[in-house]
Write a structure and sequence with these properties.
0% strand; 112 residues; mainly alpha; 4 helices; Arc Repressor Mutant
């Protein structure tokens, strides 16, 4: 891959806790935010689609997902003996169906 001067600037506003959480995950993967965004954009360009499916949910489902998220968050702070079953009938993963990972799940050395 040829060296291309990276001069374009992308700015966005995002919740601080989302930014920090993403940075923690990316750090464990050996990436920074700029590299991850570039990989995302490269995937978008080559595949002509998002790397995940975007779906609309109705208010009732959204409320159930939010309630489930809050309960899950609370359960992480609660000892295992006090855990209650989830009230959400639809798991969060069913709402965000991920497509195949770029490269079919194989790790590749991508120059960013």
């Amino acid at each position: 891959m040829t060296n291309v001067l990276k001069t374009a600037l992308v700015q966005m506003r995002i919740s601080p806790h989302i930014k920090r959480g993403a940075e923690l995950v990316l750090n464990r993967m050996g990436l920074n935010t700029s590299e991850a965004v570039e990989l995302y954009m490269r995937y978008l360009i080559t595949e002509k689609r998002l790397p995940f499916e975007v779906v609309a949910v109705d208010r009732a489902t959204l409320a159930a997902l939010e309630e489930d998220y809050l309960e899950e968050k609370q359960q992480r702070k609660t000892p295992q003996s006090k855990l209650k079953p989830s009230k959400c009938s639809m798991p969060v993963k069913a709402q965000t169906r991920a497509g195949p990972a770029p490269g079919g799940g194989k790790k590749k050395n991508l120059k960013v």
